[in-house]
Write a structure and sequence with these properties.
Elements (H helix, E strand, L loop, with lengths): L1 H5 L5 H8 L4 H19 L4 H30 L16 H21 L6 H19 L3 H17 L11 H23 L11 H9 L1 H8 L6 H24 L8
Helix pairs in contact: 3-4, 3-11, 4-5, 4-6, 6-7, 7-8, 8-11, 9-11, 10-11
Length: 259
């Protein structure tokens, strides 16, 4: 009963089924902190107001995103051959309906609080998210799901920032996200589905090189109007990846010469 009640709150299902035993540091550094830094650097209003707006936008996003998680884990996956069954399997239809309804209520409450009821950008973003997640859950073809996963990762990163940063920066940020964050996450998804033969991708040096290459794009398009978000995000990812490599090297035991 207590477990069922815990899942009523948005973010609780994500935490329990993905984050608690996953790589939370990646989400912190490459999603949440990156989005917060991006908003603080580019947003036009007061920093704390914009960060609060970003947080509420993320709350709206994760509320709907968890509807996709719940549907995938507890309804679709048990019916699939080899599907990953996460979360409290065997949950009654009443509890599932309650969890989903509460998340829709939270999404609508945030929508009203942010005065987004008449925003085409708001509804277009979340309608597209819902359609992509519906396809992702409904497709049985693992290869086709790689395309929907790529777009889901893009929506995940963009959600806290897209409604806060200046509109002329959105496309540049989206391009940087697609080249770096989404492309890198795709490797992990392919690997989890048995569709990738690339063991070297887990090396710190590979991650470092992967996040360094977009700096060439920043050099090329940096002088263009609307490129500040692209430049900032690619530089941020490069710095974090570099610090990660340095931390890995620091943790290695020193090699002592033999006698």
């Amino acid at each position: 009963m207590l477990t069922r009640l815990m899942y009523v709150l948005p973010f609780s299902y994500f935490w329990s089924t993905r984050l608690r035993q996953g790589s939370i540091s990646f989400h912190v550094l490459f999603e949440w902190l990156a989005a917060a830094m991006l908003v603080a650097a580019l947003a036009d209003g007061a920093v704390w107001e914009d960060l609060l707006l970003s947080l509420l936008s993320y709350l709206a996003f994760i509320s709907l995103y968890e509807v996709g998680y719940v549907t995938n884990d507890l309804i679709m996956a048990p019916k699939e051959q080899g599907g990953r069954t996460r979360g409290p399997q065997g949950t009654s239809t009443a509890w599932l309906a309650f969890w989903i309804t509460m998340r829709i209520v939270v999404f609508l409450a945030v929508t009203i609080a942010l005065n987004r009821l008449a925003s085409l950008q708001w509804w277009g973003f979340f309608l597209a998210l819902g359609i992509v997640f519906a396809f992702h859950n409904g497709l049985a073809d693992r290869e086709l799901k790689t395309g929907t996963f790529l777009w889901l990762s893009l929506f995940r990163f963009m959600a806290p920032a897209v409604f806060v940063v200046p509109p002329d920066q959105v496309l540049g940020i989206g391009l940087a996200c697609a080249m770096s964050y989404s492309a890198f996450r795709q490797f992990g998804y392919l690997d989890s589905k048995g569709l990738l033969q690339m063991p070297g991708r887990k090396r710190p040096g590979f991650r470092w090189a992967f996040f360094m290459w977009p700096l060439l794009g920043a050099l090329a398009i940096g002088p263009l109007p609307g490129a500040r978000g692209f430049v900032f995000l690619t530089c941020y990812f490069a710095v974090v990846a570099s610090l990660g490599v340095l931390a890995t090297q620091y943790r290695k035991p020193s090699l002592k010469p033999g006698n």
